[in-house]
Write a structure and sequence with these properties.
Pfam families: Cytochrom_C. Helix content is 45%, strand content 0%. It is an all-alpha fold. It has one domain: Cytochrome c-like domain (Cytochrome Bc1 Complex, Chain D, domain 2).
Length: 121
């Protein structure tokens, strides 16, 4: 019970922080992979490093799996996109990863950019 409450609290804080700050703007002419990386590493947006190890990231978390060999893990890139967006079919029970699109934390364009970046790893 305490573990579940702690997970809910951490998720709520993560979502609140992501919604409260709307940094990580990207230029239209910016390389899409660079823009995706910027969003993924931005603590006020994707914040992937809070839970995942990503090559080149500072102070990565270890709650979620390392983001490596993503094409081997997700042969269909749309499934990775859906996982980040947060469709009911792709959510893992008791996962601390918020449904970024479903909750409005990230826009569809931001999720597209992050998906492209992560898929390149």
């Amino acid at each position: 019970m305490l573990k579940t409450k702690l997970k809910q609290l951490i998720t709520a804080v993560t979502i609140s922080s992501a919604v409260a700050f709307s940094g990580a703007a990207f230029a239209a002419d910016e390389d899409p992979l660079a823009a995706g990386k910027k969003l993924a590493f931005d603590k006020s947006k994707g914040n992937c490093l809070a839970c995942h190890w990503v090559q080149g990231g500072n102070e990565p978390g270890n709650i979620g799996p390392g983001l490596i060999m993503m094409k081997a893990r997700y042969a269909d890139k749309q499934k990775l996109h859906d996982k980040i967006w947060g469709t009911p079919e792709t959510q893992v029970k008791d996962s601390m990863m918020p449904p970024f699109g479903q909750n409005g934390i990230l826009t569809d364009k931001e999720i597209d950019l992050i998906t492209d970046y992560i898929y390149s790893l």
